[in-house]
Amino acid sequence: VQLVESGGGLAQPWGSLRLSCVTSGLTVSASAMSWVRQAPGKGLEWVSGIYTYIDNTYYGDSVKVRFTISTNSAKNTLYLQMNSLKSEDTALYYCAAGESMTTGMDYWGKGTLVTVSS
Questions:
Q1: Which residues pair with 72 in a beta bridge?
Q2: What is the mean pLDDT of the chain?
Q3: Residues 35, 45: Cα–Cα separation, whole Å
Q4: Which long-range contacts (CB under 8 A, 24 or more apart) does 83-86 make?
Q5: 2-6 vs 17-24, strand pairing mode
Q6: Theoretical Cys-Cys bridge with 1: which of 25, 31, 48, 113, CB 3.0 to 4.6 Å?
Q7: CA 38, CA 73: separation in Å to the nearest integer?
């Protein structure tokens, strides 16, 4: 299984970015998929998750309303649309996959760096 994130970069406050996670070796639409981030000097923070097969999405309180998680089954890809970015969104963003978000993610990408700064 491989998860490869992309789309990170430098954004201004209140700007937008879209992260992508291309997967191989698993079926995005049949898996629990999550975005997890790690800000400089801090621990891991779960950001958002999706069960495509039951059309359920979940968000952390800090990103609710501003971020949108989605999948493209044909491309086997996970996305995170990030709007109204804040400096506190600066972090390394990881894509993760597994059978269930409650039991933990089994597979992780290497991350893509998002920096929000003016």
A1: 77
A2: 96
A3: 9
A4: 83/16, 84/14, 84/16, 85/11, 85/12, 85/13, 85/14, 85/15, 85/16, 85/17, 85/114, 85/116, 86/13, 86/116
A5: antiparallel
A6: 25
A7: 27
Encode pLDDT of 83-97 as tens digits: 999 999 999 999 999
Coil, helix or strand at residue 90:
coil
Q: Which amino acid does the sequence have at 64?
A: K
Contact at 8 Å (CB) between 3 and 107? yes
What is the C-alpha to C-alpha distance for residues 93 and 106, in angstroms, rounded to an integer? 16
Q: How confident is the model at residue 101 (pLDDT cuts 50, 70, 90)?
A: confident
Q: How many residues are recorded in the chain?
A: 118
